[in-house]
């Protein structure tokens, strides 16, 4: 790639975050002021945060980067808009470039770049890179979704969640990269908002929890510096959604965990800052550009007619958590909000796909914590919103092969989904894979875990597998079934780890539930 724009390349494709709410690209001539600004040298290391891709379509993909030569101190970029060239090729040496253009890295969005590339071939691997002021990014690799009408084939999906910087290194990603997934589904807790801890394996930046946009940007930048996470982002497209720790533990809508300490207006400001920083650091489309304290993250992705992936937002529209068993069964409580629930149900009822996956940040199957008679639930999970959960499980009876992919729990908890958890004899209507954490909870004491959780298994007969190692889940999806592997590592307190397959499971098409192989 030459250092200056040729006359033929003055006309470039501008995409992504070029304007607030911009959802489509536009053809623009570079103005003289932009050309002059481009000649001013930028600090070295503008691509410190790497590259990423996400939300694959059969003909498109989102490419991401953020210019940040001083990532932990606000980014270190000059207060001006910077042109960033991008290329997408059919080969890793960029001899067959199929798309190229220029995007604008703007100060208002932390000099992040979101390029929504269209017109690509389905089910095709591509390579991409960025250049700004003569500096080249690392090369990323991505893949488009299968053709819209393709009914067969094979899709490999990795499920990840819950990566706490202070609890350990993100070593499971090194193994995930070797497994070469077609797409990574990340279901929440990409960052943690906790204050720096002197006892952590690694220490959070800053001096406390993030509240402002600048503080959230620094926290995301720190996480992006993890080498295994950066390599995985460069190796496959991600489909992301957030849970609570991207903002505040156990928040619900505009209600913080501790309303007495965070007044409503202050928390709205925090939401506004957190959602803006989230968008700036994720490979998502312009439909996710935040509107103050609101962001649209629930969306649907199609992988031919093999898989429909429904990505939920179980934080932004929910009622405040119940505080009692009676409250958990209140039919007025909602996890999804009315509009998102209609969207989900309609998408399930009219799906043409063989497999209907739901990315739900919060565990859907029951967790009865009370050993013996009686019930005791986590109210932040779907157990705290039982009327809506039960209505959704009723819908599953009419859905082709529903499978829920979940995070949050920092455990592997794989379950049958029952039509009515209050009735142990009720029908199995689906399967749920609660993926363990990437690093949250660190290297857990396995004996202590078994002592705490094994006595509860008799009260939760729908649980098929329970484990407390760190890692992720890997799914090979074909028309006839899903072969799942629980991949774990021996440690996250060191920067190198040994991976292994802890368990293999199978979901058969047309037979709801999951079976240990």
UniProtKB/TrEMBL annotation:
Residues 158-484 form the PhoD-like phosphatase metallophosphatase domain. InterPro entries: Metallo-depent_PP-like, PhoD-like_MPP, PhoD-like_sf, PhoD_N, Phospholipid_Metab_Enz, TAT_signal. It comes from the Bacteria. Residues 49-144 form the Phospholipase D N-terminal domain. CDD domains: MPP_PhoD. Pfam families: PhoD (PF09423), PhoD_N (PF16655). PROSITE patterns: TAT. PANTHER family: ALKALINE PHOSPHATASE FAMILY PROTEIN (AFU_ORTHOLOGUE AFUA_5G03860), PHOSPHATASE, PUTATIVE (AFU_ORTHOLOGUE AFUA_6G08710)-RELATED. This is Alkaline phosphatase D family protein. It comes from Streptomyces chlorus.
